[in-house]
Each structure stands twice: as C-alpha cells, then as structure tokens.
Amino acid sequence: MMSTEAAAVALQDSAALWSVGEVPASDVVDAACDALVAGLDAPGLRILAACTRTEAYYDVLDLLPPALDGLGLVFYPFGSPEGVEPAARALARRVLAGGLAPWKLTFWSHKRGKLELPLLQRLAELDEQYALLGCSGGPVDEVDAEVTAIARRLAARP
C-alpha cells in the first residue's frame, strides 16, 4: 500500500498535470481514490473520489479545489501558467521512476514554448538535440543522462 505522503504527492502531481492538460480528469479521480485507500481523508477528497469517469470530465474543475485544500495541497487553475512548474516536477518524478522516457520530458518542455524556469528552457534545448540525433541515428545516452540530471534537480525543487 502507498504511504500517505506518497499518495499526497501523487494527487498533487495528477492535479498539476491536469491543470496543464496533460492528463484527463479521470486520472485525478483515480489519484483521489488512491489517496483515500492510503489513509488520507477529507470531505472534499471523498466527494472527488466518488466521481465516475464521465462525471470527472465535468466536475473536477469544481471539486478539485476543496479536495486539495482539505489536505493542505495547492490547486492550480486549468490552463494557468502557475501549474507549469509543478507539472514539470511531476513529469520529472515519472522520468526518475522509469515511467516516462527522458525524451518525452524534453518534448513536453519544448511544446510549452517560452518558459521562465531555466531548467525547463534547457530541457527544450535538449529536445532539439534528440531530434538531431534521431535524424543521424546517433546515440542518445549522453542526452538521456543530462535530462535525468535535470529531472533530479526539478524533482528536488520545493
């Protein structure tokens, strides 16, 4: 079973990724269910976890703020620029856990456009290196290593 701390991080990550359009609302509901199973509890969390996949699409926008607030977590409005860095941290944790290929993190950063955080800017630059190496058939191990190092730094940010 997941620890309460890990469940809180997973819920915060899902909420941040939802806020930038990277995961569907149903992923947030799944994370809320996992949080309840792990032992976290708040009235808003229970209501959010009770959503069906169809309801999630329509209701997460209204149910997520009180669910996160009840746990002392942060809500990032859908489409807000404030959610970009937390979403990047969530993706970085996925890279470090082996659930996301390093190049996907660089691609995500690149498609975000102008980014304030230098680490995200560097990831966008590395996406171009992946593209060049892909065209030439060159090895990507060095780029993967740099992306992983950046992912560690991102994941460690408060």
Dominant shape: elongated
List low-pLDDT spans.
Answer: none
User: How many domains make up the coordinates?
Assistant: 2
Q: What helical percentage do the residues reach?
A: over 70%
Largest sheet: none
Order of helices and strands: HHHHHHHH
Helix-strand category:
mainly alpha
What is the number of beta strands?
A: 0
Terminal Cα span: 25 Å
Tally of contiguous helical segments: 8
Q: Mean pLDDT, rounded to whole units? A: 93
Radius of gyration: 17 Å
- Share in β-strands: under 5%
Q: Would you write up a description of this structure?
A:
The radius of gyration is 17 Å and the shape is elongated. The chain has helices at residues 4-19, 25-38, 43-49, 53-69, 84-97, 102-111, 118-136, 141-156. By secondary structure, the protein is mainly alpha-helical.
